[in-house]
Amino acid sequence: RTQAEMAHTCRGTINLSTAHIDTEDSCNIVLSNGGRTYHLKANSEVERQRWVTALELAKSKAIRMRNNQSDDSGDEEPASQSDKSELHSTLKTLSSKLEDLSTCNDLIAKHGAALQRSLSELENLKLPAESGEKIKAVNERATLFRITSNAMINACRDFLDLAETHSRKWQRALQYEREQRIRLEETIEQLAKQHNSLERACRGAPGLSASSAGITSTAKGSVQSAKGEASDEDEETEYFDAMEDAPAFITVTADPKHHRRSGSNLSGASEGHPEDWNLEDSVFESSNQSSYNESTCKDLLPKKRRRTRIPDKPNYSLNLWSIMKNCIGKELSKIPMPVNFNEPLSMLQRLTEDLEYHELLDKAVKCESSTEQMCFVAAFSVSSYSTTVHRTAKPFNPLLGETYELDRLEEFGFRSLCEQVSHHPPAAAHHVYSKRGWTLWQEITIASKFRGKYLSIMPLGAIHLEFHSSGNHYVWRKVTSTVHNIIVGKLWIDQSGEIEIVNHKSKDKCQLKFTPYSYFSRDVPRKVTGVVSDAAGKAHYVMSGTWDEKMECSKIVQSSHGSTSTEGKQKTVYQTLSPKVLWKKYPLPENAENMYFFSDLALTLNEPEERVAPTDSRLRPDQRLMESGRWDEANVEKQRLEEKQRAVRRRREAEAVEALEEGKDYEGYIPLWFERKVDAVTGELICVYKGGYWEAKDKQDWSTCPDIF
């Protein structure tokens, strides 16, 4: 009975779905439910068994009805013709099987009846008493067999009825899920299109949005109330909130020639001089032109012709689960990940790619002011992330002792060298020398954490930059990169966190904030904001832009304490001149989407070159095969190289154990071109270039290089 029927039954009714059925002896049945118990007695053991079988079947049916009870009103036919035909085919098969079972039942009943007649005839014969008892027992067993076969047929019929009853319900549920999935996909696609169109509209809009205008008026109100007298040029001056309040930066063109000081100045406001913002002599002005025309100027120089494309990426589909399901229980470091997740560059080459906008450092050399120089260094630190916006594939993990050189001394004035100095944890050392007046070095260790839906990549280690003529020594660290939709959806990358750049000579600082992406935020995606201040804490410049497009710099001519925020913090309002573009991203080459979204520089990084070290990433066979589109061969080669590296590590571990047993010191792996020293500025142990590589290249003496490929 259903629950509705149970509410209107007579006294003494037992709900079979929760009842307990038991037998005491050959004829008695005990039926209990909660505090109510019934003792039933049958005429014979055969009759008792028929009742027990019927009760068990009824109980099973009651349980199914309770579990599957639902309102079946308004049944619909399956939506798709394929689903309908599949359902009818299944029901037809079940009906056919049931007919076969019914035929078997008829045969069993026929032969069972014949068997019983034969046994009855034997029972009527004059046989010893013991034989009569035996024949009677066999007769009862045959009857039980017939009852059981009938019960089996009835159960099959009930199953078919149940399948017919609930098939429509299951089809409705399945169709609902399919419609929900299609609706969700359409919604996401529509949102993505709207987002892209809004982004393009915002970038192409000549004026400010309504929200920007609101913020502008608020900021102006704060300043004007503090000044007591508003001057005419306030209409053409932009204001910035302080860093701690995550400000919204607004760009309004101002003419510094018409900027004049008001008679009533702010109390305690830091003052700047507009005439310092010289449009003709400032390095900032040259950056506006050169950041757009740098590639044109470079083309005028005699230089080696380099490749502008690589083979298109093959269209291989890969299921992540098909790989991971075979790796359950294995050590993570020993799981051979296929090259399908990679791009044909190593981590050392990706590290070298940070130098794509090296001309920012060349301009910084010409700056006479350390705070101006800090602006270019800040723009350079942001520019290194511009290549990551579309690059969701992971680079190859370098083998221990692997190196990568980029010699552009004649073309761009610098030469770079990277070496993988540690494998567990993976660490790479990098050294760049420029004959145009600067040196950069770093040791980066990558730490990552998988957090279910996304992967956080945290580069550990400081980046050092020193200018030869001034001796200014800048130090900063990278922000966290986050790869979203690791399991399901389209991969995308975001950068978040803060960068503090410190000039350890002048004590100037720049605080850059990378705002994480938020679906509900009104801010420009991938936004970066910052303030450049001197040793005394006085703010000189405001930095603003995005890490995937451009960075601008605005000179602060006046700052004051504005209104108090809702959190109780007092905002600082910066009055600035019109911004200058320090850095703008180069457009991607044609057909970049089929070439792993490589930039012009990235396309040349793995180009074969002569006279490089035998450990150079360009000579790595699995990476070369992948670039050529031979991914299956690359996977085999990658597995061979990784196993070779494990064998070397096991041998090194055995040597360490042997040295320990003998009481000797074991140094472990020693980098070839770098050495570990305590950094005088940060106090950290860091790998620095010890020299010798470029001399070995000139002599072509690579005898000290290990055999890693």
Automatic annotation (TrEMBL):
PROSITE patterns, sorted: OSBP, PH_DOMAIN
GO cellular component: cytosol; perinuclear endoplasmic reticulum; plasma membrane
Gene Ontology MF terms: cholesterol binding
Compositional bias of kind Polar residues: 209-225
Keyword annotations of the record: Coiled coil, Lipid transport, Lipid-binding, Membrane, Phosphoprotein, Transport
Location within or outside the cell: Membrane
PANTHER family attached to this UniProt entry: OXYSTEROL-BINDING PROTEIN 2, OXYSTEROL-BINDING PROTEIN-RELATED
Family: Belongs to the OSBP family.
Name of the protein: Oxysterol-binding protein
Gene label: Osbp2
